[in-house]
Amino acid sequence: MTALWIAVVALVALWVIAVAAGFLLLAMGRLNLDLGWGRSIHPLGPIEVRIDAPRELVFEIIEAPYVGRAPRGSGIEVLAKSDSLVVAAHFTKLHFYTARTVEIVEFKPPGEVGFRHLSGPVPYAVEQFAVTEAAAGTELRYTGEIGIDFFILGRIAGRYWARPQWERTVREHLDDLKLRAEQRTAARRSRDARVEHG
Hints:
The protein has helices at residues 2-28, 55-67, 151-197; strands at 40-51, 76-81, 85-94, 97-108, 112-119, 124-134, 137-148.
């Protein structure tokens, strides 16, 4: 009887390890499951950011790593591109692992950038960035949605894990974008002022 219990405990331990490894591989975007079983859709945003910079500059900063050379450490690897579409892999550091997503990025200058998910931690995602002129510069508005399979497990994972992580990452990117755009605008204004008075 003792040998049977040891075997049962060993099998349960192996099953728990396999499930944990599967979830980690899913979270990292290395295991892609798009089964459509009990998919729940979770809205992302809206997240709105006011940026003291011209609309064209904000759009240019969003577009730059996809149409030019992505800076080292940007977490973006362009896999293919045409005039208005790019297929890019995004690497995002989360806790103790890096998540990989592959997305189609569509540019509609000067005011829209759309992302459609091809593979990664979730089976479905679409995102939209709208860049509009505002009284004090530019307003950047982010919206989207993600879909996760597996019925109630997917609903729980979407609400308490995937959506908060996703929105936190987007907010960090938008804060960085705001900082860079406002720094470039301030530097340009300073140069213009020196030329005007010099």
